[in-house]
Input
Amino acid sequence: MTEHTGLFGLYNSNRSIDEHWGKNCFNSSFPASLASYMLDQNKKAIYLRLEESEGELKVVADEISIEDVFNSHGKKLDELYFSFESRYDPYNKYAFDMIDGIDLVIKDLNGNFLSPLEVKLTVLPDNSTVKKDEQDWGCELVVRAATTSYCALGMFDAVSTKKDDIRLIFENVCSSIQMWDNDFEVTHKMPGICSALNEFEKQNLNHQHPLLMQTLWKTEGQSPILCKNAFDIVIWSDYAFSRLFIDSAMASKSTTMNRFMRSTARLARCLWELSKSNRIRLTDIYRQMAYSVQTDKEFSINGSRWRSYVNTSRLTNLAINQSALDTIIEEGYVEQLRPERRFDQTLYFTRRIQTDTSD
Output
């Protein structure tokens, strides 16, 4: 039995109606609803995937259906279950300990797991790009450790039948590391680690799949007013997402560990150890490989850096008009938002302006 939650498409969920509108929930519930609307309207998302060109790995912008993102082929919205902040149980077989949850797990009503997705809700433009020309606007992206751990698990899961080949790629550099918690040793092995990851990705590009669902909301500069074409979704494949830290680690001149290098080393170690034993102590790896770098987040990139990866003209004309809010958010529910939060404030006052204008 489905129920109305005030958000389009979220008929079956582990969140109550009130929880969808809470401070720590709306930022993932709204993106899930927007994606459901795009699925219903047959609107494709921007898809960032990795490809090889002339021996170099490059992130390219393509398109992908939400049906492919959800892995929900042949199923209607009321046949899907949105499980927020949940574990993707099929990956538990790769860990001795219990894996963390991810922002959104898509299931069917029989409990079959379809897709794990990390979810971000980001404003376009951010502070670093707002003074640039509109075609150069970008978003800040803050990444947590769960995203990189699911990146590693998903990468291995897709090629688990080739684990002997994977082990050979990483064996030389990874087996030479005596202490993975030693900043000096791992930092100085970074070129070899990056080279192994590059080779792994070149050999397995056809196994990449969606990992991060980044929902964009676009304002008129730094004002709280939504643009006419206000919303879109950027899907990062796991391979494309990994370049955010691998590329930075490759370019870094630092002689001590930074966040990007740490994420790169963790990914390589996870893939190497999984290729040897098929199971790892994921929590121990992440705890051990902290390197005195704060663990409040995995890493972040500003809008200028983000824009260098999201190379598409679609950012100047997002796919979803703000008028779609009348369908995505049912009448009477906007009042449950808390206008002290910037996105809530923008939605709240946009709806008020629309109402006043119609009157």
